[in-house]
Amino acid sequence: MASKAGGLSLMTKIIFSISLLLLLAWVIPSVIGYYQNLESYNLKKATLQKIGFKYNINEEAKPFVLEEFKKENSNLFSEIDVEIVSNNSYNVIGKVDKSKIKSLNSFIESLSLHYLVKLKDNELLYEEKDELLEVKFGLEEL
Amino acid sequence: MRNQYVTITHYKEREFYFLNYAIQTEDGFIPKDIEQFHESEKEKFIERIRLLQSQNPSTQIVSISLVTNQKVTDKEDRNRVSAKIFNDNYVVQDKMDIGNIPTTLYFSPFAILYEEYKQKLDNKLTLLIGLFDRKLYMMFATEDKIHQSWVIGTRGLTEKQIADRVYKSMKAYYKISYKFADHIEMLLTDDSPKLLKVLREELSLSILPTQNSIHNLLHYMSGDSNRASSSYIRSSLSLSQGGMNSDFKQSGKLKTSNFSSVENDALHNLDNLKLKGSSVQEGDSFIDKIKNFFSSNSGSKASITNSLLSLIPLFFVVATGFYFNQENKKVLQNIEVSQSQLMLQKNYELLGKNANNIFLAMGKNAELKHAIISNNEIELRGVVWGIEPLRNSLAELYPDGEFVIKPLENFMTEFSFKSKV
Lengths: 142, 421
Description:
- The structure holds 2 protein chains of 2 kinds.
- Chain A is of the alpha+beta class.
- Chain A has 5 helices and 5 strands; from the N terminus they run αααββααβββ.
- Chain A folds into 2 domains: about 1-55; about 65-140.
- In chain A, about 50% of the residues lie in helices and about 25% in strands.
- In chain A, β4 (about 125-130) and β5 (about 130-140) form a beta hairpin.
- Chain B has helices spanning about 40-55, 110-115, 160-175, 195-205, 215-220, 225-230, 285-295, 300-360, 385-395; strands at about 5-15, 15-25, 30, 35-40, 60-65, 70-75, 80-85, 90-95, 105, 125-130, 135-140, 145-155, 185-190, 205-210, 365-375, 375-385, 400-405, 415-420.
- The longest helix of chain B is centred in the last third of the chain and has 62 residues, at about 300-360.
């Protein structure tokens, strides 16, 4: 092979050498890294799916979209108001009938399986208002 | 008789050793009969050389290197066996291959070829071909330089195939130099009229043949101190200056143990041609191979095409690397998100359960007016009807909590509860 390579021009040899170097030092590690990470990701996805089954959730968590969030949770909340704090931060104020407290708690438990969001400070604020329970919490997009 | 200078020549072809000796005179050499020994009679063959040597006090024992890994270079390689042909042209090979057969002068076919044709060389490119032991030793030469050399094995090939290989060699040389040989000289040590005929027909060139035996060529080479100086073995050359009739002083027997007897019989073919004359042989060091790899013959159209074609694998490598790099970044982002989801899920499960427990604890004993619930602490305030059941329920959940009651003006009782979780 080396003898055959002897007949190639310097530029060709340099290009081949660069190709080989890139293949060994960059491409092959990238391909190996990709498949290793993909396996790790699939494992985590499977774990999330398994947890999702517990809450009858068959879909993957989706990005937070304000209007969709309000619409999708209109059954749980008698009234819902979402104020935008910043680009990806929101304050949610919802009123819940006291008979739906269990559903509200279940909603909180499975929040991260529904939406790609996190609760600000992991804190819930409850207040009784007009025979309804007002719950306040902050959300941040992941 | 005692003062006459005798050259003893020998070489091995296939399984036979061929031996000859000649008396060197002012008018040339007078060869005697050729003797032949089978390789199983090696001892007898060596004894015969010793006998001839003892009978003639002024002798040189001359042989020829017929290995294929010889090449002509423009500088001496001190790590290998080398011989100066002329000016800055040296013939080199990896190792000596004379075994334990006495030898004091040892010539390359390239040295013999040059010696044979040096008077005919001018500024036009001449292809010198020597057929020795069914191998073609080829040199492209002008009067001042040997530009290229290589060896082609012809064992098992038809005359037409040999002619084809010679033509391909010329084409290969054209690729690197843009020059075709102006004419071809051919030295045949075998009597091969058919080969010559086919070469003439196939190459459509005027080929000037010379036929001579290896023994005669060796006698000729060793008959003069200047010609003999192109021998691989320089340690045994202790020459008195003079013309053809000068005697060579005996410089002792060759220490054959210094030389390897390993012979590389691998035949080169066109696939193995080294276009720059810097062929990579088995014995080359790794550094030599790298140097050879980067030896350039850039500038030709073919090399430009090659360079452009070589961009294809580079493009493929870069595209593949870029694709997998991007995909890897996406997967890493997804992993980060999934990892966050899993961690948050645990927190929210705990938070949801805390909230659920607190509302269950209220039951019919109290009504919650205000509550802050987190995974670190809870703070509750409301109206209570069943103080003790509520206290007990909360104490069961949070034993370290602080339960405070306060009577209200409307005969109701307010409770507050604080605890770390």
